[in-house]
Amino acid sequence: MVDHRRQWPITDDLAALRENIQRYAAQAGLAGSRLDDLVIAANEAAINVLEHGGGVGTLAISCDGGVLAVDVADRVGVLRPGAVPSERPSGRGDRGFGLWLMGELCDSVTIDRIPGQSTIRLSMQVGEGAALGRSAHSV
Are 35 and 25 within 8 A, CB to CB? Predict the structure, then answer.
């Protein structure tokens, strides 16, 4: 697939956003449970923008060198590098599972922060090496 970066605003129409992600990722070569995992993780990241990131953000998706990347950016910038927990959060609270879930579902998760914006990158290997597992959690 020739890379054509695509970008969409994050709105409360999450069904359309999921369809766009699924279509692009399938064309890039992601399939089966790995495709489902990426869609679930990206949906969770978009929900976080709506609930915690000021309600305004963008989702961009691209594929380069066998890595499919979804960048979800908000306009508040409170999410910090290192915020993805490596262990499952306790069941005592009603929140806190989203970032952990993204880390479990994707090959790597990174967070970048600049004043007024946080960006979470969800990455998945496509093609050769795609079945390497999820041991490369980056934060």
Answer: yes
CA-based Rg of the chain, rounded to a whole angstrom? 14
If residue 58 lies in a helix (H) or strand (E), which one and from where to where?
Answer: strand 57-64
Highest mean pLDDT among 51-60, 74-83, 123-132: 51-60
Query: How far apart, in Å, are the Cα atoms of 68 and each of 12, 15, 56?
Result: 24, 20, 23
Do residues 68 and 26 touch, judged by C-beta distance below 8 A? Answer: no
**CA 72 to the chain's CA centroid:** 6
Higher pLDDT, 93 or 109: 109
What SS3 class is residue 17? helix
pLDDT in tens, 41-52: 999 999 999 998
Its sign, for the CA torsion 33, 29, 97, 10, is: negative
- Contact present, 129 and 107 (Cβ < 8 Å): no
Amino acid at position 87, single letter: E
10 CB burial (10 A radius; 0-12, 13-18, 19+): buried
